[in-house]
Amino acid sequence: MRTFIISSLILLLSITNLTAQEKSNISIKQDYIVLTRKIPQLKPILITAKELQQEALQTFGEYEVVICGKTVKDLEDHTKIQPFLDQAKQLGVEIFACGFSLEKFKVNQNKLPEDLQVVKNGILYNFKKQKEGYLSIEL
């Protein structure tokens, strides 16, 4: 009986150890969100996205950028924003414009590039993403 109990314990510990090893091999994805007030900052923001992807292929998750503030007026000028949108698309990065900023600075959403998405409230959107576990920075 004693041998049976010891054998059962060893078997149970072995199974538990294997399960723990399997769980540790599961990659947890890390997501990122950046709020920016200047379109030129998109260049280092996208460089960072690329480097993070290369550094952590298995754990790199979503990477989102929200453009807020007065700079949204420049979003109607496709020559300023389109190169960044193209690069973001290649990297799998999503770029959004803050709807409140668009309203405040009277930007016509119909004049924005098609691949630029709009969120109603950039700050609230950022907070919600943080609650979901996104790492956040504001520039």
List keywords for this structure.
139 residues; Hypothetical Protein Ychn, Chain: A; five-stranded parallel sheet; 49% helix; Intracellular sulfur oxidation DsrE/DsrF family protein
How does the major sheet shape up? 5 strands, parallel
Could you tell me how far the N terminus lies from the C terminus, measured between alpha carbons in angstroms? Answer: 67 Å
Look up the CATH topology. Answer: Hypothetical Protein Ychn, Chain: A
Radius of gyration, in angstroms, nearest whole number? 23 Å
Average pLDDT, to the nearest integer?
A: 85
Note the quaternary state here: single chain
CATH architecture annotation name = 3-Layer(aba) Sandwich
Signal peptide: 1-20
Protein name: Intracellular sulfur oxidation DsrE/DsrF family protein
Keywords: Signal
InterPro entries: DsrEFH-like (IPR027396)
Describe this structure in words.
- This is Intracellular sulfur oxidation DsrE/DsrF family protein.
- Residues 1-20 form the signal peptide.
- Keywords: Signal.
- It comes from Mesonia algae.
- InterPro entries: DsrEFH-like.
- The chain has 139 residues and is an alpha/beta fold.
- The chain has a single domain (27-138), classed as DsrEFH-like (Hypothetical Protein Ychn, Chain: A, 3-Layer(aba) Sandwich), CATH 3.40.1260.
- Helix content is 49%, strand content 19%.
- It has five helices and five strands; from the N terminus they run αβαβαβαβαβ.
- The protein has helices spanning 2-25, 42-55, 78-91, 99-104, 122-131; strands at residues 30-36, 60-67, 94-98, 117-119, 135-138.
- A five-stranded parallel sheet has the order 4-3-2-1-5, sandwiched between helices.
- α3 (78-91) links the parallel β2 and β3.
- α2 runs parallel beside α3.
- It starts with a helix and ends with a strand.
- Mean pLDDT is 85; it is low at 18-22.
